[in-house]
TrEMBL record:
Organism: Micrurus spixii (Amazon coral snake)
SUPFAM superfamilies: Acyl-CoA dehydrogenase NM domain-like
Lineage: Eukaryota, Metazoa, Chordata, Craniata, Vertebrata
Cofactor(s) required, per the database record: FAD
Gene3D superfamilies: Butyryl-CoA Dehydrogenase, subunit A, domain 2 (2.40.110.10), Butyryl-CoA Dehydrogenase, subunit A, domain 3 (1.20.140.10)
Name of the featured protein: short-chain acyl-CoA dehydrogenase
Enzyme class: oxidoreductase
Flavoprotein among keywords: yes
Domain of life: Eukaryota
Length: 128
C-alpha cells in the first residue's frame, strides 16, 4: 500500500508521484515512503497523480509487480517496533507497467485509498 510520500506529511491528496500513459503502458515516477514489507512484497498498490489539475480527484491506483524495471527499494529503516517486517522507500524512475494494471478507473485512486484506510483503522488500533 504505497500512499505516503516524503515531504507530504498526512496530506494523502498531495501525491507528487506521477503516472503518465504512454501507448499501452503507464510510466511511474516519484518516491513512496515508509512502505511496510517493501523488501518482502511481490506486488504493491501505488497511488499516483494522473491529472494534477484535478488535485485529489486526479489520483489513480496501480498494481505494480515487484521486482519491476524502474523500481528500486530504499534502505531498510531501523524501527522501534514491528521489526519483523521491513519498511523502506519505493523509488520509481520511468517504471513501466501495463495499462491494464490501473485499478478501478482513472481518478478513483484517492477514494480507493480512503476506503482501504477506513477498514484498516481497527487493526491499527488493536496494535496500540
Amino acid at each position: 500500500f504505497a500512499l505516503s510520500e516524503p515531504g507530504n506529511g498526512s496530506d494523502a491528496g498531495a501525491a507528487s508521484t506521477t503516472a503518465q500513459l504512454e501507448g499501452d503502458e503507464w510510466v511511474l515516477n516519484g518516491t513512496k515512503a515508509w512502505i511496510t514489507n517493501a523488501w518482502e512484497a511481490s506486488a504493491t498498490v501505488v497511488f499516483a497523480t494522473t491529472d494534477r489539475a484535478l488535485k485529489h480527484k486526479g489520483i489513480s491506483a496501480f498494481l505494480v509487480p515487484m521486482p519491476c524495471l524502474g523500481l528500486s527499494l530504499g534502505k531498510k529503516e531501523d524501527k522501534l517496533g514491528i521489526r519483523a517486517s521491513s519498511t523502506a522507500n519505493l523509488i520509481f524512475e520511468d517504471c513501466r507497467i501495463p495499462k491494464e494494471n490501473l485499478l478501478g478507473s482513472q481518478g478513483m485512486g484517492f477514494k480507493i485509498a480512503m476506503q482501504t484506510l477506513d477498514s484498516g483503522r481497527i487493526g491499527i488500533a488493536c496494535q496500540a
